[in-house]
Design goal:
mainly alpha, 5 helices, 43% helix, flat
Amino acid sequence: MSDQVSDEALVIPLRPAPARPGAGRPAPGEPGTREPLWRDLVGEVLRRERRAQERTIKDVAEAARISLPYLSEVERGRKEASSEVLAAAAHALGLGLGELLSLAHGELTRRTTPHRRPAAVPRRPYDGLALAA
């Protein structure tokens, strides 16, 4: 028996490693599908809005008075931000907290709702005239 200690560190990931795309994963809305985490959705919305405005993370962090590393972790879904932090980040991007959460909710709905149309009802554009009084 040897008393040698291994130089390799034991690494325990915080999240399971992502599976390869399409590798035996059920489609959204089917049984066995994992719903996305709220912090991931909110972070993705913050990042998407920031990039749409062509702003740097540093600029938004300064405007929101949030540390740059913390905002980065929120955007990556690594931190569960408080409502105060989310409101500050949203306001720095010109959004209200409600708008930010609504966008995240829309993303959640988009990802988790099955995209199936009944086969018996074909979708056709409406060519009529709508009148309102």
